[in-house]
Amino acid sequence: MKHMNSKVKEERTSNKKRMDLFLVPIVLIAAFLNLFKIWTDEYANAYYTAAVKSMLQSFHNFFYASFDPGGYVTIDKPPVVFWIQTISAKIFGFHGWSVILPQALAGIGSVLLLYVLVKRTFGVWAGRFAALAMALTPIVPAVSRTNNIDSMLVFTLLVATWMLFRAVRTAKFGWVLAAFAMIGVAFNMKMLQAYMVLPAFYVFYVVATKITWKKKIAFLTTATALMLAVSVSWAVVVDSTSADKRPYMGSSQTNSVLELAFGYNGINRLTGNTSVTGSSHKQPAQTQQQTASSETKQNSNSSADSSQSSNQRKSSSSQKMQAPDGGNQNGMFNTGNPGPFRLFQKGLSDQISWLLPFVIFSIVGLFAGVKFKGPYTAKQKESLFWLAWLLPVAVFFSIAGFFHQYYLIMLAPPIAAFAGAGAVALWSMYKQHNGWKSWLLPSGILTTAALQVYIMSPYVSSIGVAPIAGVGALGVILALVLAIRKERKNSVTNYLGVAAMVVLLAMPAYWAMTPIIYGGNSMLPAAGPDSSSGMGGPPSTATNSKQSGFNGMQPPGSSGSNSSSNNQMQPPSSSSNGGQMQMPGGSSNNNGQMQMPSSSSSKLSSSKRKSGGMNAEVNTKLLNYLTKNNTGEKYLFATTDSTSAAPYIIKTGKPVMAMGGFSGSDPILTVSKLKSMIKKGEVKYFYLSGMGKGGQSDVITWIKENSKEIPSSKWQSTSSSSQQGPSGNGTLYEITLK
To answer: Which of 19, 208, 300, 301 could form a disulfide with 381 if both were Cys (CB 3.0 to 4.6 A apart)?
Structure first.
C-alpha cells in the first residue's frame, strides 16, 4: 500500500512537471488573437493614450492619472491600469502598441489562469476546453487588443480566484486576505465593476471551507475590511488633497473620486442615470448617447464616399437611429432592451452568448443529484463558485440601463469554465448511459447550434448563407447521430463528440478574428463583421458601404466644405476602422451600425491603422499658428472637451485644456476662474465648436463675448484631403486680459 501511494505521488509530480502539449496551440491561438497587428493601431483609445502621454511627464500626473500634461483634469477611471500602461510606454517607448500590450498579455494570461483553475478539479481535458473557450470568446480578444481596462480587470479577478481556491485547499487565512485585497486592486481599475464577483467569493468560501461558522464570519469580515481599505486607499488620498493642488476628478460632478466610484461608475450603470448638469437624472437613450462619459461619447471612424452629401448622410443616420416608437430598436449602444433574454438579443449575443445553451445544460449535469445540505464534492463546490459568478453578472447585464458591449468580458470566465467542465461531465454521462443525464450532451449540442444560427442570421449579407447553414446542419446531424448511437461504445462515437465541439467553436473562432480581419475599434471594442464600427451588431442598410454609423465631424482646422469627404469623419489612413467620440451637440446614430466594408476595403491594406476613434493627427497649420503665437502660456489652447484636446496632447506632449472634461459636462471651470487663468498668462487661445454642455454654457458665452476671432485663413486647412476628425467646424478665439 505504501509503495502504491508513493507511486501515485511520483506520477502526480511527474504530471505537474510535464508540459501539456495540447495547451501550447491554445496559448498560440490566444496570442495571435490578442497580439497580431496591434502595432497597426497607432494611437489606440486616444482619450486614454493622451493620459499616458501626460503621465509620462511627471509623477504628479502619473499619480492622479491626469488627462493633460497641465494637470487640469483626470480621466474618468482609477489609475492602476494606466500606471501599468505608462510603465510599458516608459520601457518600450510611447506607441499605440506599447499601451495596448499590457491588456493583450492580460488576455493571454486569463486563458492560462482559467486552464489552471479548471484543470486541477475537473481534469486536464476540462482545463483545455475551458482555456480554448476563453480564448475564442469573441469579446475577449476584441477588448484585449485595446487600451481599455476590462481585460486587465478580468485577469486581476482571476488571480484573486486562484488565491481564493488556494486558500481553501491550504486552509491558510493569508491567502483569503490576498484574494480579497486583489479585488481591492481591481476596484482601483474600474471601481464597482470589480465587486460583481463578490457573491461567488463569499458563497464559495462559506461552502468550501471546513471551519466553524464563527471563524468563517470572522475571516470574511476581516478580508472584506481589507478589501474596502485597499479599494478606497487612492480615493481617500485624492479626495483629501486640496482641489487646487491636484487635477479635477474627470466625469464627476463634485470633484470626488468616491462620487465617481459609487455614482457614475457605480449605481448609475444599473439605473441608466447620467450626470449632465451637475445633477443625476435619467434620460432617454438618445440623450444619453450624446452626453455620457468617456465610454458614452463615441463615434465610428470610416472612410467617406465623396459622392454622398452631408444632408443625405444625416437623413440616413436619423432613419437608423430610431425605432418606430421613437426609441432605439437595438437599445442604447446596441446593448438590446432590458429583459430576461437580453443576452440573446442582437448586439450582445454575438459578443458572449455563443455557448450559453451548452453552459446551461452543463450546469444541469454538474448539479444533478446535489442535495442542498450537502455534502459537496470539490467539483460541485467549484461549480457553485462559477455559477455564483455567472448568475449575478448575467442578471446585471440583463437589467442594467447603461453599459457597453465590451463589459460583457466579465461573463467570459464562468462561461468558459462551464463549457470546459461541462463538456467532460456531459460526455462522461453520455458514455455511461446515465439515464436522462445521457441526453444532456446531444441536447446541448442541438440547442447551441440553433442559437448560433440565430446569432448569425442578421449577418447573412456579410458572411453568406454557407456558414450559417453549415453550423445548423452539422449541429443537427451530429446531435441526432449521437442520440442514435447512445448505446454504442467505439472510437467513431468519440470522433463525433470531438467534431461536435469543433462545430460549436468554429463560428466563435471566426467572430474572435473579426477585429483582425475587418479592423478593430479601440473606443468601443466589439467583435463581428462590422467590428471596426465600434458598435457590434448586424450591418445597416446604408447605401454607402463605407459609411459610418455616426455623423461626420472635423478636427480643428479642417476644411468646412459640405461634401461628404470633408464632413464625414475618416481615419488617418485608407482603412475603415475606428470609433470616435462625439462632440457636444452633435447628432449620432444610436444603433452605431454600419454597412460591411467592401472586400477591397475590409482588408488590412493600410500600414498603420489608427482605430482610436479620435483623429490622432492634428492640423499642422493650426498647430504651427498656436506654437508660433504662444507667448509663454501654459496651455497650447483650450477647448470644450477632450475630443479636440487628445490628438494634440498625443502629438506634441503639450498641455491642452479640456474645459469641461471628457464629455464637456464637468463643472470644472467658472468665468471668474477662467479670467484669473487668462490674467496669469496660462491660456490665450480657445477652439470652440457648439455651445458646450452642463456648467460650461456661461463660460462659452463669456469667451465669445470677450474674445477676438482669429480669421480662419490663418489657421484652418482648406485642402480637400485634410484629415477628417472629431471636433466639427469651429472657431478659434484669442483672449488677453490685463
So the answer is: 208
